[in-house]
């Protein structure tokens, strides 16, 4: 459900080696990532992407966390959806929180929110629909982006939104289809 917003990410914060090493053999940074030579720089190359994704997810988290207490309540979840012109019932919001709340406090901490964001491609489809100005058109325009950002309190100019689309507009038609939107959100 949270992915109805601009940033419903499929996140991987830490990439793990594909084959675990035996516990008795400590690994050097070079062998931990599969070889020698230039691969010793691999972890440094991964860090900016991981940090950027985490920063983006934290920004999305902050859209929900109205009181800035580091947790999202059922009421904050409902308030967010109301702010973007969608609505969910208290029971629906409660179910979402309960599904991802690992510690039973009826709140979503950041790590639990990440689990929610990683949940399902169907969620990404719903996020795509939020950005469609003409519902059912199958595309996101610069105007659609501008309107959603404005509702989120993050006003962007039409030109800024055009530039954002241009980065992920693989077929050059000036709009984002679902595939291009998926690529944008995965970045």
UniProtKB/TrEMBL annotation:
Q: Does the keyword Calcium apply?
A: yes
InterPro entries membership: EF-hand-dom_pair, EF_Hand_1_Ca_BS, EF_hand_dom, EF_hand_pair_protein_CML-like
An example molecular function term from Gene Ontology annotations: calcium ion binding
Q: Which residues form the EF-hand domain?
A: 56-84, 92-120, 123-152, 160-187
Q: Which UniProt keywords apply?
A: Calcium, Metal-binding, Repeat
What Pfam families would the database entry show? EF-hand_7, EF-hand_8
Q: Where is this region: Disordered?
A: 12-56
Give a yes or no for keyword Calcium in this entry. Answer: yes
State the protein's name. EF-hand domain-containing protein
Q: Which organism is it from?
A: Fraxinus pennsylvanica
């Amino acid at each position: 459900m949270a992915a109805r917003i601009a940033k419903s990410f499929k996140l991987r914060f830490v990439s793990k080696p594909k084959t675990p090493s035996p516990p008795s053999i400590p690994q050097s940074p070079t062998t931990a990532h599969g070889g020698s030579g230039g691969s010793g720089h691999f972890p440094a190359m991964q860090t900016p992407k991981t940090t950027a994704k985490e920063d983006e997810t934290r920004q999305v988290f902050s859209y929900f966390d109205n009181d800035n207490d580091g947790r999202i309540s059922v009421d904050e979840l409902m308030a967010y959806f109301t702010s973007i012109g969608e609505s969910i019932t208290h029971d629906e919001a409660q179910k979402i929180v309960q599904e991802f709340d690992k510690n039973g406090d009826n709140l979503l901490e950041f790590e639990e929110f990440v689990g929610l964001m990683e949940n399902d491609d169907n969620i990404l489809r719903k996020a795509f629909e939020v950005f469609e100005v003409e519902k059912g058109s199958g595309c996101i325009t610069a105007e659609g982006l501008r309107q959603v950002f404005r509702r989120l309190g993050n006003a962007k100019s039409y030109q800024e939104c055009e530039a954002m689309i241009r980065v992920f507009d693989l077929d050059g038609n000036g709009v984002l289809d679902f595939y291009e939107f998926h690529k944008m959100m995965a970045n």
